[in-house]
Design goal:
By secondary structure, the chain is mainly alpha-helical. It has one domain. About 70% of the residues lie in helices and about 0% in strands. The protein is built from 18 helices and two strands. Strands 1-2 form a two-stranded antiparallel ribbon. The N terminus is likely disordered. InterPro entries: Bact_Transport_Assoc, DUF418.
Length: about 450
């Protein structure tokens, strides 16, 4: 999600100067627009629904929520996040390549850009109170991806399977750690219920598990308390969101780096290979669609069914990890989402090349150009609708009803973004980010250049 990538004309003297926007790679803006709108499908339940919201209907095939959830998991979950990271990686090349051709170093300018994005992410999480912010991670991980920008595409692309395997191993080790603590707890608790005296180790096992439950597996009373906080004042909502956001941004940062870094590197590779810039033949894009959906859809459908059967609720999940030390099915995840994501992109590219849905494509292009502003706008709209200090709709809607709002936000942004760009070069946040990066106010209105 490089939020202001472009093909630019620059006036460069002693150091890189701000670019004047004259031409962009339209298809990348369109793909970014697709990713931006698509990510709201997966984000909106976390603005609006309490913990364990899916448990009442997750196995009820007669419930519209089940099928809405199934479509989201099969077609969008993980794919839109991957696409965001992919386009962000391509944006690194777009931002740096033309500047570097002048022989001037772009390193400090790029790092300033990422540092400011990191600060935006902190504000997004802790002031606007969006628990799922990605700007912070993209700012930090973008600094790492920058170091790989000149690597050959084939080596960049190898990062995806390597990270998928590393991720599987890390998740397995985490699962086994949880499993070990759970089994120790069960053994100690069984003795306690029988009236036996417990050793210090057994007492510690019970306390360790209870602490772990409080952090990861809240009980119904704690869920009710958390829901009440989300329906409270700004400070009450913040008291729930901020500690979790802080843990994600610092305590668990090491676990977030590798997936995003690998996908950014894949984005750089696919840009260099011409996949993202329509340099492939239509036959190649069609082959990608057939392979992507032909392999990816059966894999994700199998995974969805397996998880629905084995993980419908907390109790079933605990029973599963008690009986299984390794969840081999989770190995499917990274491969199916990359396959389907690339098929999605190929469909968009072919539709664009054939001239279909021109008005929609223009709208998506504008949404992609204003992706930073539109992304934060999602958070502002959703927090003001669902959180207690807004319209207090948290935990009030059915899952499927959320997607009426998603559709409304899509229509609004598809309509308003092209209108905004008639008079302005950038979105408000894109302009602010650009001005902070270059250390001076940038042109904002089109009549200023």
């Amino acid at each position: 999600m490089n939020l202001s990538s472009s093909t630019e004309i620059e006036q460069i003297n002693e150091a890189p100067k701000p670019a004047v926007l004259t031409e962009r790679i339209e298809i990348i803006d369109i793909i970014r627009g697709v990713a931006l709108l698509g990510i709201l499908i997966l984000n909106i339940p976390y603005f609006s629904m309490p913990e364990y919201f899916s448990e009442p209907w997750v196995q009820d095939t007669g419930n519209v929520n089940f099928w809405t959830h199934a479509v989201n998991i099969i077609l969008f979950e993980g794919k839109m996040r991957a696409l965001f990271s992919l386009v962000f990686g391509a944006g690194i090349i777009l931002f740096t390549s033309k500047k570097e051709k002048t022989g001037k170093s772009v390193t400090w300018l790029f790092y300033k850009r990422m540092i400011w994005l990191t600060f935006f992410g902190l504000a997004h999480a802790h002031l606007i109170l969006w628990l799922g912010d990605i700007l912070y991670f993209y700012g930090l991980i973008g600094m790492l991806a920058f170091l790989f920008r000149k690597m050959k595409p084939k080596y960049l692309a190898m990062g995806v399977p390597i990270v998928a395997i590393i991720g599987f191993v890390a998740n397995t080790l985490f699962l086994q750690d949880i499993r070990g603590k759970y089994l120790e707890y069960k053994e100690a608790n069984s003795l306690h219920e029988q009236g036996a005296a417990l050793s210090e180790t057994q007492t510690a096992a019970i306390e360790t598990w209870k602490e772990l439950q409080r952090e990861y597996i809240p009980n119904p009373e704690e869920v009710a308390e958390n829901t009440a906080l989300m329906k409270g004042s700004y400070s009450e909502v913040a008291s729930f969101i901020r500690p979790k956001a802080w843990d994600g941004q610092f305590k668990f940062l090491i676990f977030s780096i590798w997936d995003m870094l690998a996908l950014m590197m894949l984005g750089i590779a696919l840009f260099k290979w011409g996949f993202l810039t329509m340099k492939w033949t239509q036959a190649q894009y069609k082959k990608t669609i057939w392979l992507g959906y032909g392999i990816g859809l059966p894999l994700v459908i199998f995974s969805f069914i397996y998880n629905t059967i084995h993980f419908p609720n907390v109790e079933a999940g605990l029973k599963y990890i008690e009986e299984h030390s390794i969840n081999w099915v989770s190995l499917i995840y990274d491969f199916q989402r990359i396959l389907i994501m690339m098929a999605h992109v190929s469909v968009v590219i072919l539709l664009y090349q054939k001239g279909y849905f021109k008005r929609l494509m223009r709208g998506l292009r504008a949404v992609g150009q204003l992706a930073f502003t539109n992304y934060v706008m999602h958070s502002v709209i959703c927090t003001l609708i669902f959180f207690g200090y807004g319209l207090n709709q948290f935990a009030e809607w059915e899952y499927y009803q959320l997607y009426y709002l998603v559709l409304g936000i899509w229509i609004f942004q598809l309509v308003i973004s092209p209108i905004w760009l008639r008079g302005y070069l950038f979105g408000p946040l894109e302009w602010l980010w650009r001005s902070l990066t270059y250390g001076r106010l940038q042109p904002f209105k089109r009549n200023e250049i």
